[in-house]
Amino acid sequence: MTASGQQSNLLIVGSVAFDSIEAPSGSVERALGGSAVFASIAASYFTRARVVAVVGEDFGGEQFAVLDGRGVDASGIRVVPGGRTFHWRGRYHDNMQDRDTLATELNVFEGFDPVLPDAFGRSTDVFLGNIDPKLQAKVLDQVTGPRFVGMDTMNLWITETPADLREVLARVDLLFINDEESRQLTGERQVANAASAIIAMGPRYVVIKRGEYGAILFSGDFCLFVPAMPLRRVVDPTGAGDSFAGGFMGFVSGAAQIDRATLARALRAGAAMASFAVERFSVGGLEGLGRSDIDRRVAELDSMCAAR
Ligand code: AMP
Q: Phi, psi at residue 97, to the nearest 5°?
């Protein structure tokens, strides 16, 4: 619910994928994945999530049922007749952090031209998942006066399409980025300086993710920290970043007002959802959670930082 009493919702654009993963913990073939899938399922615990994306005819009832099961509105997912869904193949190193991309088959994603269903144009909040910044801008062009817009990006766009990236950055409220990419984007080595440089590019806030060392949200006048949950067993790190962003953005979208306290809680929601995501392959860790599971994990994150 927004401050004006409007039922809030979160529009998410990103990839919908089949992921084939090899990890020290095991492997999966063509499991449901993609940034928009992880983000929307994570967000669905806090707000009404809706997705704009593209898939092929190989994406069927079983996959849509997963989104439907979480109440995610998939009416913005276009099925291309005769097309094949984006497929990503990756292999994790023994440290479960570094990974090699073995194959990226863009398939229908190559011709992705996001067109929003009419109702999506009135979304209250927006998360622009990690896709070509030109497409992120195209989605934003179709939304009337969103309350809060977050975006993700990656090294590819920082190096290949810096001007397009800067244009979108100037239009969003918050950027999610990892620390290495923040250095790449700004040329600044110290995280606080990189954050200031990013804020000077337009967003009011930046969340700099530092893997197992947590994440820091910077604004012009305060910063907030959240640790990463120290898990004993990580099965599949795929989608951790997207689940973090989905949990964070979902929490913000579900909040009546967006202030420092909301952002602090959103960081915990993000860290909790990321920790659930990595405990299973694909979206297995994000399904079937109860409010109490999430609350318990958020409380654990809180107690890690409490003075007593
Ligand atoms: P993350 O682990 O947060 O980096 O996100 C992994 C997800 O991103 C996987 O589910 C992949 O399907 C998806 N992905 C991988 N490469 C790309 C790409 N080039 N564009 C869009 N999505 C991608």
A: -115, -55
| Alpha-carbon distance values, 15 to 65, 130, 202, 235, 249 (Å) | 17, 8, 25, 22, 17
- Give the phi and the psi of residue 70 in degrees, each rounded to 5: -105, 10
Structure tokens at 277: 């995501």
How many whole angstroms from 24 Cα to the centroid of ligand 1? Answer: 19
**Ligand 1 site, residue 129, Cβ cutoff 6 A:** no
Does the model's pTM come out above 0.70?
yes
pLDDT of 307 reads 84
Q: Given this model, what pLDDT does residue 306 score?
A: 87
- Which protein residue's CA is at the shortest distance from atom 19 of ligand 1? 104
Question: Starting at the edge strand that comes first in sequence, how are the strands of the sheet with 86-92 ordered?
Answer: 26-33, 17-23, 86-92, 99-105
- Which residues, given as ranges, of the chain have pLDDT below 50? none
Q: Are 226 and 271 in contact (CB under 8 A)?
A: yes
78: its two tokens: 């276009």
Supply the DSSP symbol for 302: H
Closest CA to 218 of 241, 242, 201: 201
Question: Which atom of ligand 1 lies closest to the CA of 241?
Answer: 3
> Which residues does residue 18 pair with via DSSP β-bridges, in sequence order?
32, 87
Rounded Cα gap, residues 296 and 70, in angstroms: 20
Three-state DSSP class for residue 153:
coil
